[in-house]
């Protein structure tokens, strides 16, 4: 995957993710998976990007 290519459909500001575009606040993936860690999510803090990979 080329992390220099921004997917302008997926905004992202998590620069610690290996999938973050190097040059802009976008994800470099074609698509992402969004999930939750709660049984009954009620606000945005309950959701997670399941495509997150810690940058090495």
Question: Can you summarize this structure?
Answer:
The protein is mostly beta strands and 56 residues long.
Structure description:
The chain has strands spanning 7-11, 26-27, 34-36, 47-49. The strands form two sheets. Strands 1-2 form a two-stranded antiparallel sheet. The radius of gyration is 12 Å and the shape is elongated. The protein is an all-beta fold.
Fold topology:
Blueprint: E1 7-11, E2 26-27, E3 34-36, E4 47-49
Antiparallel strand pairs: 1-2, 3-4
Keywords:
two-stranded antiparallel ribbon; mainly beta
Beginning-to-end CA distance, first to last residue? 15 Å
Instruction: Please state the structural category.
Output: mainly beta
Strand content: 15-25%
Low-confidence stretches: none
Strand order of the largest sheet: 1-2
Tally of contiguous helical segments: 0
Q: Quick one: biggest sheet?
A: 2 strands, antiparallel
Shape: elongated
H/E order of the elements?
EEEE
Q: How many strand units?
A: 4
Radius of gyration: 12 Å
